[in-house]
Specification:
By secondary structure, the chain is of the alpha+beta class. The chain is 25% helix and 31% strand. A seven-stranded mixed beta sheet has the order 10-2-11-1-12-13-14. A hairpin with a 2-residue loop joins strand 4 and strand 5. It is elongated, with a radius of gyration of 22 Å.
Amino acid sequence: MRQFIFYEIQTAAICPYKLLFFDQFIVPLKESNQFKFSNIYAFAKVKKLRFDLTNTFVKNKRQLTTTVVFDDNLTKELTVSFFDTAPIFKSVYKTRENFEDMLSDEDDFWSCELDNERSSNEKLHFFQKAKTGQVFEFWMTPENIESASEIIDDIKFDNRPEIVYIGQSFRMIDRISSHKTLHKAVSELSDSEDLRIYFLTFKYGYGGHKKYADLLGKVSQTWLSKHGNSKEYKSKINLVERFLIHFFQPTYNTQHIHTEIQNDKYVNEIIHKNNIDVISINYGIHGKAFEFWSPNQKLNSEIVSFNFFKPEDGYQTGLVTNLP
């Protein structure tokens, strides 16, 4: 093999559409590295998750007991730790042991209360109060519990996100807030569905035979470029977007769907003209909440390769390593 490039999804920050204009959710999201370093986004349909408020209460200052209504007809009764399900606690308490110690039953310095007036079946509002009078608030969504289900054995949601649109932006919130396709996708949801926005970051790799690999060449400089606004970095984002769209064939995308990927402008500029034989892609992230799929995707596999020696074969499962 002369040269090859590959990438995989590194992080996927979730923004439920219903929280897109909710400052208490968006402001912390915008401050996270998962959001700051993302230039690819995906809209995905999922099954609706809601809290049953009649069976939701603070068990103690460390745990919540609730029932989550799933897909409008299934219910899951569960008790979860705030440390696992409310993101703010992992920034305040660096370890579970520290969290359990500071909020122990023996120490009444802190208390935790559910704010029934501001809570809804879409999000819960809590106050944590200290004897000194200090108070801070935090929120929890059903999506927080779904994400925690990947580390809590007895909570499982089969809620794979169906990708319906993929795009890119260097001004994420401005772009998405006024995105006509987003609002169209939401308007066409069924009563049992929700829409989520995933902000994606990636890890990248480059390699090849010692006779051809060039760590100072155009391809390596493009593919290994850091986050930013450089021409090389934007070229990489263009290429990633094209392969994502071409592979998943999302319902609402219109560009890059029917074009043969080997004939695409950016593929020609970066791949063909620079002796790239293979691109390999890993779309998988641990957990059903990040198991992206589309009914139109080219291949039923999370790890795929495209062999430019045999473009007529399309995508192949796994990594391609047996080229001359």
